[in-house]
Amino acid sequence: MVQEVRTVYLDPDLNMEAYRFKGIMQKFPAHFHEYYVIGFIEEGQRYLVCQGEEYIINPGDVLIFNPYDIHSCEQIDGKTLDYRCLNITADVMKKFMYEIQGNEILPHFQQNVLAASKLAPSLRELHMTISQEEKEMKKEELFLYLLEELIQTNSNLPILPPASEPSYPIKVVCAYLEEHYTQTITLEELSNLTGWSKYHLLRSFTQQKGISPYNYLETIRIHHAKKMLEQGTKPVEVSFLAGFSDQSHLTKFFKRMIGVTPKQYMKIYQSKGDI
After folding, report:
1. Is residue 20 predicted with pLDDT exceeding 70?
2. Residue 87: pLDDT above 80?
3. Where are the alpha helices (DSSP H) in the chain?
4. Closest by alpha carbon to 84, among 34, 44, 35?
5. Cβ neighbours of residue 215 under 8 Å, at least 6 residues apart?
6. pLDDT tens readout for residues 131-162
7. Which of 85, 120, 253, 259 is the most buried (most CB within 10 A)?
8. How far apart are CA 230 and CA 86, in angstroms?
9. Cα(215)–Cα(255) distance, rounded to whole angstroms?
10. Residue 41: phi, psi to the nearest 5?
């Protein structure tokens, strides 16, 4: 018998809850929440009723409940349910909407079920980032991109295209990231440098540099890590000297960008040859 897993993470940076249900059969009667729920099905098939509409929901489907949307659901395939979701209060949603729209208007999401949605992988990545207690900047970037896509495709609100901005503020941000790469940096700090909202900064930076501020920062850290490894500094020391939270964090990004682990890379220079 599959063991149930019911986990709740309260993210102190985004100020939202991340729920994970795994291996459950529970039936949920008609109810509503005072907050937004954005979730997706990983495994299992369910019969859902939301706002009087009936759905059969499947793995890969994204579910969106506005505050006070009445819904109920139950398992119909005899298998257990694996499900992840984010719970977002109206106050938190207003904060992020201000970043995107310049005002605190609350969106109304028009479809409760997005079948086989391309947003499911993005939502899963954000959920995993929260549960693994990743950096604040990365979480904010992922959520702003997710919210932007939902507003564009499934709300009653328009998204204004980013205005063409001079490159000087972006150069200021790049210089700041390059100088302070060993420190914990937030989008709030970067937005204060430019006078832009965090959302506008994120969009403008990515548009001009072809990479997000967080990935730009991690790339700088990897460049410094490479130099230290070439000089024989041990990976456990490099991780902190280059601004990573620990050695596993360094290894994860290093292997993703360079293709080998820090230890393998260091051995190349120790042996003066290929591994």
Report:
1. yes
2. yes
3. 90-101, 119-131, 136-154, 168-179, 187-194, 198-209, 213-230, 235-241, 247-258, 262-271
4. 44
5. none
6. 888 888 999 999 999 999 999 889 877 655 55
7. 85
8. 42
9. 14
10. -90, 130
Using CB atoms within 10 Å of the CB of residue 198, give its burial: 0 to 12 exposed, 13 to 18 middle, 19+ buried. Answer: buried
Q: Under a CB-based contact definition with an 8 Å cutoff, are residues 106 and 94 in contact?
A: yes
Render pLDDT for 22-62 as a digit per residue (tens, 0 to 9).
998 888 888 888 889 999 999 999 999 998 899 999 999 99
pTM of the model: 0.74
Mean pLDDT lowest among 13-22, 64-73, 151-160: 151-160
In Å, how far from its chain's centre is CA 141?
A: 6
CATH superfamily membership of 5-154 = Jelly Rolls (2.60.120.10)
Q: Are strands 5-11 and 62-65 parallel, antiparallel or unpaired?
A: unpaired
Report residue 78 as tokens: 């005899």
Dihedral angle at the C-alpha atoms of 138, 143, 149, 150, nearest 10 degrees?
170
DSSP H or E run through 9: strand 5-11
Domain positions in the chain are 5-154, 168-210, 216-271
Distance of CA 82 to the CA centre of its chain: 19
Tell me, what amino acid is at 192? N
Kindly tell me the sign of the dihedral angle through the C-alpha atoms of 160, 165, 168, 174.
Answer: positive
Structure tokens at 258: 């360079």
Residue 186 and residue 137 in contact, taking contact as beta carbons nearer than 8 Å = yes
For the record, the structure tokens of 31 come out as: 């109810």
Q: Supply the pLDDT for residue 161.
A: 55
The Cβ of residue 172 has, within 10 Å, a number of other Cβ atoms equal to: 13
Token pair recorded at residue 173: 């941000």
Q: Which two tokens stand for residue 206?
A: 């990515």
